[in-house]
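Re: that chain you flagged

S.,

Sorry for the slow reply, it's been a week of failed gels. I finally had a moment to sit down with the sequence you sent. For the record, here it is as I used it:
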Amino acid sequence: MNSPAEPASPPVLDTVSLSLCSLAHPLLWALVLSLSATGTLTAQPQTSAYSRAQQAFATQNFRVAANLFAEAAEAEASTPSASPSDALLMQAKSLIRLNDFTAADSVLRNQIAAAPPSSPGSAQALYLLGFVLHRENKPMESLTIYTQAATIQPPQADDLKIVALDYVLLDDYADAIRWLKRAVTADPKNADAWYSLGRAQMNQGNFVEAERDFNQTLALSPEDSKALDNLGLSLEAQNRTDEALAAYNRAIAAQARRGHASEQPFLNLGTLLNAKSRSSEAVSPLEQAIGVAPKCPRCHEELARACLATGQEALGTREMEQAVALDPRNPRLHYQLGQIYRHAGLLTKADAELKTSSSLYGSHSTPTDK
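Prediction finished late last night. Pasting the structure tokens below so you have them in one place:
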């Protein structure tokens, strides 16, 4: 893989065979996200603590599970004749479910130190540590660990996906796309990998490819509202307005059916309607966006534009004021509010906002995106 512009070159997974179809080890994320503690490395000693930890993990009581798996690991360490278990690995998985990545990091390093270097247990712990380091925003360390894991056991599609997302954190989208393509080749039914590939393609301005990837995501997961929303963005970038509007509306309907609301499809729908001089239609979705995310400055900004375009000056002014209050360091918002005040004849207020905008932009910059 190409080296990003970092002090040290990232590890090279190309040294490992990536013929993933025949790999035998369990999927990493199936283990992480499983609601049971089954599918472990070896037959587990059914100590009281370990059995209760399994039950707590199965019922999603992850804090209790983490404590009990730790107790089981301590008991095993103090009993030389005890058979090795995956108590530390399961403790780490419990901590990950609690988003306690610092603690999971420490537990996994203990597991790696305790396991034979080339054992399946060591490989699983390394792959899981690579994921944890990614979540800790340590992409270079994550890539190092993934390379170490790959020397023991080849990566699965989900592992390749996290490798790619490490490159996203390094702002190396070319390598991210390359590894995501390997992930979807390894597992063509991995909807999340297809979605991540679409996002990376969009970031690179590859909107036709992004459209293809989001459609593939939707073929696997038709109710994925994020994929529908991003499909809309990729279509909008290709000036296919009607199709983009339809995709945003599908995203809104899908998230309603799933009982999960995000402001993004409402915002994207309203923003596109504003851009196409259909502001009267934009008001409703933008109000719904604010209902979902009252502290979203962009939502208030777009609603202000819609209100002003439809003759609702007072409401438009209030919405832009709210946008400025929520994002006071944004020079564009101060500039727009200054123009609104100037149009209303409030020259003192207008001058103050324009002065603030100029200061934030810098004395030699000209406000843009008006």
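What I noticed first: The chain has 19 helices and no strands.

Talk soon,
D.
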